[in-house]
Amino acid sequence: MAALAVGGALSLAGLSGWGDVVLAAGTIVAIVPASWWVFSALRAGRLGVDAIAVLALVGTLAVREYLAGALIAVMLAGGRALEQYAMRRARGDLTALYERAPRWAHRYERDGPRRVDVSTLSRGDLLLVPAGEMVPVDGVIMRTAAMLDESALTGEALPVEHPVGENVRSGVVNAGPAFDLRATSTAEESSYAAVVRLARETEADSAPVVRLADRFAAWFLPVTLALAGLAWAWSGEAVRAVAVLVVATPCPLLLAAPAAIASGLSRTARRGVVVKGGGALETLGRARTLVLDKTGTLTQGCPEVVDVVAAEGFTVRDVLGLAAAVDRMSSHVLAAAIARAAEVRGAERFGAERVHEEVGSGTTGTVGGRLVQVGKAPRGLDSTWMAAQRARAALDSAMTVWVSVDGGVAGVILLRDAVRADAGRTLRRLRSSGIERVVMLTGDRAEVAESVAAVLGIDRVLAERTPEQKVAGVREEAVRAPTVMVGDGVNDAPALAAAQVGVAMGARGSAASTQAADVVLTTDRLDRLADAMDVARRARRIAVQSAGAGIGLSLVAMVAAALGAIPPAAGALLQEAIDVTVILNALRALRPVRGTRVQVDAPTDALLHRFDREHAALRPALELLREAADALDRPSPSTLPLLRHVHDVVSREILPHEQAEERYLYPAMSRLLGDPEATVTMSRAHAEINRLAGRLGRHVELAGAAGPGPEQIDDLRACLYGLHAVLTLHFAQEEEAYFSLIGRAE
Questions:
Q1: Cα 268–272–275 angle (5° rounding)?
Q2: Where does the chain cross the membrane (predicted)?
């Protein structure tokens, strides 16, 4: 740049001889780094297009086009600087990811909390996490609930509340009052440290589309030399050959592809997705087949209570409360699910004594002087009622936990690994973005896998597969089309490695699957995969578009230069304009991409949060409907009070909730989705809920002091079961269609 400025100034001052000397000196200086770039490329086994730049610089000296040589030198320096800026900007989010790693922690010692280096922490240390500070290691929340900002790690827009006893990951920020944390890992073992290691592995120069840019030199260099030779031979003017070489200098041009890929990596990092290299991102952008594990991927990965059935003499709340009393002392995954359900459904909290857990059998304890057993059915007990519950569980693909009191069955709890609320929407998004085939690959039983596949519309189910059979299944699909495999368990690791792109659910997945995968979802949300695929397709499209456009423009300029229409100096300026244009175009990949993602505004996101919380609070009311319907099989003096209570709950809790949805949520969703008909089916469900609620009210009015008459029983049972079925389906539809959008406000 200095040589160009000084040489130009001397020429304008009438000292053209000295000006040429300075410009020539600048050209010679530029030949040195350009030659080194060519040598480095050859040493790496590539024939870089920087060779054209060296020939152009030498050519300008030979034909005394010193101004053109100086312009090419400026182009090379400017192109490299622009490329470095592009890469820094594109990788800024990944760099920020590991630069913000926790370095300090406040550990409780004898004299209170003391600031210590995070590397000195051990499992079991009690820590204080002040307001506004980062959680330094993985741990369990103690004493008070925590409000955490997880946006930097997961992309969630709103803080998330975590109750006492819940596990939290390092790297999130305390957005509420200070809380205590019991460390469950060291700094090196923490979740955030794992994310940092993944971020450091991320490189943009290995993408197939970038390698195509390198291989471009294999044919472009001979074409350039041939065209330059023809121009010289045809015209007899060496200056035309130099002009061809000058406009064919696309060094910054070919940096557009890696800049676009690196920009894509930056965008995925912002969405809580770490992609281990540009090659994985580029392949993700052209994938056509999606293979998914079931447990922990399409489902929550942990059982949830889906139904509680009480035997004669007990209520649902009795059964759940007694089971939770002894299971709170158990570490079994089913026990934790039962304890959670008891809290959510408001079951009475009993105290238990002399609790004892027997592996493979269950947990026993004394509650209020009665012996309570939770687990397998007591030996020697069997009845028609128990057989009916087993059949019901088999039809629902559910696990059964029997609750016995003093040796007699009090009820049964049905548990199932529920389908993720965002699974259906995510699969639809993936199909609309280019996925043509979805396969479920699982080690679970065929009937369980088929039931999940039926709900989600999966094309093929491969059930009861061993890890070796999973690898074979992935390879079979990979032969047909570029394939992505998604999993989270240790047994998924070989299959993840076998796919063109392996995706690990890293938030709760195993270390083996995370290491074997090419893409890691750092948050426990499947829809982040659809976000990443949207980014990948757009980044790949922009990379190819930028490189292709630049190459095409260079070829046109080369022909014009060969015909004498463009002199070397003008050609240098023209090539610089082309290079800058395509690199800036590549940086478009840094911009937010909507793709198949529905963008939720903040007010609508707040509404979704509100009604999602209300759904959770109304779940016990749905089970109350089922309980009342079951009670009609054995009418008793308590039947009428139960029916009145059910009617009150429907009238005072459920119907106001549905009316509020109709008034506030549905208009907002119609605007968001851009379709006034988008909520029509939901409104129709509201009409049916109102009809059945009115019918239930008339039955309660007609019932005498002794309860509903025999002529009412059949219709009343149908009304209660119908209301339960419609509400259950309606809740599921809203949770999949609407509430799965929570956290998408930006």
A1: 50
A2: 48-79, 216-235, 241-261, 542-563
Task: Supply φ then ψ for residue 16, to 5 degrees.
Answer: -65, -35
Q: How far is CA 390 from the centre of its chain?
A: 37
The β-bridge partners of 520 are: 274, 504
Question: Cβ(133)–Cβ(174) under 8 Å?
Answer: yes
Structure tokens at 465: 């597969």
The residue from 93, 138, 180, 293 that is catalytic is: 293
DSSP, residue by residue, 468-487: HHHHHHHHHHHHHS-EEEEE
The residue among 178, 195, 179, 177 whose CA lies nearest residue 187 is: 195
Question: Can you tell me the distance from the alpha carbon of 242 to that of 612, in angstroms, rounded to the nearest whole number?
Answer: 69
Angle made by CA atoms 298, 301, 303, in degrees to the nearest 5:
120
CA–CA separation, 412 vs 433, rounded Å?
A: 44
- Whether this prediction's pTM lies above 0.70 is answered by no
422 is catalytic: no
Alpha helices of 517-567 — where are they, by DSSP H? 527-562
Q: Quickly tell me which residue has 């493979």 as its tokens.
A: 360
Q: What's at 659, amino acid-wise?
A: Q
As averages over each run of 10 residues, the pLDDT of the chain (746 residues) reads: 49 54 60 64 61 66 60 62 54 57 87 88 92 89 84 56 85 86 87 65 47 61 79 80 73 66 80 79 88 83 81 83 83 78 79 77 84 82 83 81 88 85 85 89 81 87 83 88 81 76 71 68 81 86 80 82 80 75 78 69 85 85 83 78 89 92 90 81 90 90 81 89 90 82 61
**Residue 194: burial class (beta carbons within 10 Å; 0-12, 13-18, 19+):** buried
Q: How many C-beta atoms surround the C-beta of residue 47 within 10 A?
A: 17
The identity of residue 337, as a single letter, is A
- Packed helices 50-62 and 66-90: angle between N→C axes, nearest 10 degrees: 160
Cα–Cα distance, 78 to 69 (Å, whole number):
14
Q: Is 454 exposed, middle or buried (0-12, 13-18, 19+ CB in 10 A)?
A: exposed
Distance CA 99, CA 96 (A): 5
> Residue 505 belongs to what H/E stretch?
strand 501-505
Burial call 303-334: b when 16+ CB within 10 Å, e when fewer: bbbbbbbbbeebbbbbbbbbbbbbbbebebeb
Structure-token pair, residue 405 = 């009191």
Q: Residue 590 gets which letter from DSSP?
A: G
Count of beta carbons in the 10 Å neighbourhood of residue 42: 13
What is the spatial distance between Cα 92 and Cα 108, in angstroms, rounded to a whole number?
35
